[in-house]
Specification:
about 475 residues; three-stranded antiparallel beta sheet; 15 helices
Length: about 475
């Protein structure tokens, strides 16, 4: 395992240890002393994580900086500079200060992540005790059953590392993966740039990568002037890395070793508009790679849900992903076991997701206004097809007309107590928003306002399982809670 992977693994392991601490609440009794002991254990795990990750990060950054410096020196030699002309000595003050500046920022991210992990883990401990006790008192459920259900609910996601601007909860190991990759690349680029400047050079080349994102495409494959004094080339104002997993870097571009044609070509290429100029084939391939990454991320989220409900039956992530990809019988058996074991959430146990409401609430409000104002929009012939299908499956009375069917749909969408879900998968071109009555009926409308379907389930359990178990569904809140966002 590479050293960077080992650093990220520290966060994966710490997250798993914290989840296990929360699961330990399933056995034994609740006491203030036990809770304080758990909270202390959380602090100890994260203190160990902070120390270990800071030490590893410091060592990795120093190595990345040196690697960038070496590559810059090698590029000078490769272009024709004599070995005795290349200054490869790392000036202590300049280079140490450069590495320390990057480390300061990285250490802040480490503290930010561990602080969020601490808050999240401690909140989950408190929440398990609170919700289990509440259900024991109000619903008469046995302590063991109430605790098991509360623990399952509190361990169905990885420990949070950060909350993004859009409200998304990013697991600690995933967040730190981005932090590590970004800062290592930054150290590499900084080492290269400082070595180039140290050798009295001003022009640098940002490497060209065929399969890249639309942002990197604007800046790659150009020569820049570090100082901005060479007006033939743009000034190096935005340096790689351009984002967390960026693979771009810089190297020396020595004009005296270039042909006249190459100099003219590079001047022209470097002064092209700063726009995305990727060819269609590369865009298509990049999107395919991102789709595959999204699928892997969805598999990880699904694994976390299964692990929370079936900790002893769910294998490790690698085995789970393999079973799912092959459509193995063991995976299908696990799916069925999960469906049967999944807790049926009560309405009161579904907290609104402020992040999703903030990001997608406007879509829900717009769709609702369209349905209740202008009416339902169906693809040609679909309304009649759905009416026939619902009658055939005995979802609606035989004497219902299209008007009756649409009235039922509008009733659900208009009800302020109806539940709202976002249904999304990587392969979908657009999101689907689901309005549910909380018991049987759901209404599914695509992001552009086109009706998908509407039907009732045979029981509330099937309703809950469909919305809370199947991949891709995320609860947002009630219609009332989403509307409050508008105000």
């Amino acid at each position: 395992m590479a050293d960077a992977d080992k650093l990220i693994a520290l966060y994966t392991q710490a997250g798993e240890r914290l989840i296990q601490l929360i699961r330990s609440l399933e056995t034994g009794s609740y006491t203030q002393q036990r809770k304080e002991r758990l909270l202390k254990q959380i602090d100890e795990i994260l203190a160990e994580l902070t120390d270990g990750s800071a030490q590893s990060m410091s060592e990795l950054l120093a190595e990345a900086y040196k690697a960038g410096s070496r590559e810059a020196s090698d590029s000078m030699l490769a272009q024709g500079m004599a070995e005795n002309q290349v200054n490869t000595v790392l000036e202590p003050i300049i280079h140490q200060q450069a590495v320390q500046a990057i480390m300061d920022d990285a250490f802040f991210r480490i503290l930010e992540a561990t602080d969020n992990m601490s808050q999240d883990a401690k909140h989950r401990v408190e929440e398990v005790v609170r919700t289990a006790t509440e259900r024991m008192l109000t619903e008469g459920i046995r302590r063991r059953e109430a605790t098991k259900e509360a623990v399952a609910k509190m361990t169905d996601q990885g420990i949070r590392g950060i909350v993004a601007k859009n409200g998304a909860r990013i697991p600690a190991d995933k967040y730190m993966n981005g932090v590590v990759q970004y800062n290592l690349r930054k150290a590499h680029v900084t080492g290269a740039e400082n070595t180039i400047v140290q050798n009295g050079l001003d022009l640098v080349y940002v490497n060209y990568v065929g399969i890249t994102c639309e942002y990197c495409a604007k800046y790659q494959g150009r020569v820049y002037s570090i100082s901005g004094k060479d007006s033939r080339f743009p000034k190096l104002e935005i340096r790689p890395p351009y984002h967390a997993h960026c693979v771009h870097s810089i190297s020396a571009w020595i004009e005296e070793y270039q042909t006249t044609d190459e100099i003219e070509r590079m001047i022209a290429v470097s002064n092209r508009p700063f726009t995305d100029n990727r060819i269609e084939a590369n865009i298509r391939r990049y999107n395919e790679i991102q789709l595959e990454k999204s699928r892997k991320n969805e598999t990880r989220k699904q694994w976390m849900r299964y692990k929370a409900v079936l900790p002893n039956d769910t294998p490790d992530l690698r085995t789970f992903a393999s079973m799912k990809a092959r459509g193995a019988t063991a995976y299908k058996d696990l799916q069925e076991l999960y469906r049967k074991a999944n807790v049926i959430n009560k309405k009161t146990e579904l907290p609104k997701n402020s992040g999703l409401i903030k990001q997608y609430g406007e879509n829900v409000i717009r769709i609702r206004k369209q349905v209740l104002g202008k009416g339902l929009v169906w693809n040609e012939g679909k309304l009649d097809d759905h009416l026939v299908k619902r009658k055939k499956r005995k979802h609606i009375p035989e004497d219902w007309t299209t008007s009756d069917y649409e009235s039922k749909i509008k009733e659900i969408v208009s009800n302020l107590d109806s539940e709202v879900y976002r249904y999304s998968k990587p392969e979908f071109k657009q999101d689907t928003f689901v309005f549910g009555d909380g018991e049987l009926w759901i209404v599914m409308v695509e992001e552009d306002g086109t009706m998908t379907t509407s039907f009732p389930f045979k029981s509330e359990q099937k309703y809950r399982n469909y919305l809370n178990v199947d991949d891709g569904y995320n609860y947002m809140g009630t219609v009332k809670e989403v509307r409050e966002f508008e105000g």
